[in-house]
Amino acid sequence: MKMETVLSQPSGLPVSQGTGMASTPAARLLVSRGQEAIRGALAQKRPWGEMVDRSSFAKPESLGEATTRIRKNLSHFRINYGIVIVAVVALSLVLHPVSLVVLGFVLAGWTYLYLVRTEPLVAFGRTFSEREVFVIMSVLSIVVVLMTNVVSILMSALLIGMAITATHGALRVPDDLFLDEQEASGGFLSFLGAGASGVPVVSHV
């Protein structure tokens, strides 16, 4: 009986360690898929020279024409517009270092807990479950963000970025090369579906 007890105790130890490391493969898979999505998106980026060609700009004659231009340019330059919006958001955070530090701490906490940590979280002599860790981090993140002006800065930056892209889309005359309705109906985030499936998008004439 003593022999069986001694042998049964170590067998339970790897099981608890394995559950602590179970999130690591999932996190790696998530990071890998995110990198693939980013590479797929950047592959669809249009040349910046084509986007800022001065000969292609003209004032729209009506609101309907401006709306049509925005819709078609949004489909054609969706990746470029996304980069512009991200750049505006990044610039706004750099100009407000306190908000950048606060957001950095929040992101660092999530990164450590779900990408770096390989063991169960133990604090104050208590082991927290994954659900408890998620709830605590969610509440803490919301409180920290609401106590600072991070939300207002991000919202302002997003509005400025969207205003820039809308102005460009309304002023740039769409080329006949991308007036096809199938391309125009692709949507701003259509690259995500193509990147996730791994199948290239082929347009049928």
TrEMBL record:
Bilayer-crossing regions: 81-113, 133-164
Bilayer disposition of the protein: Multi-pass membrane protein
Keywords, sorted A to Z: Membrane, Transmembrane, Transmembrane helix, Transport
Disordered: region residues: 1-20
InterPro entries: Prenylated_rab_accept_PRA1
Localization of this protein: Membrane
Pfam name, any one: PRA1
Source organism, top-level taxon: Eukaryota
Family note: Belongs to the PRA1 family.
Reported function: May be involved in both secretory and endocytic intracellular trafficking in the endosomal/prevacuolar compartments.
Protein name: PRA1 family protein
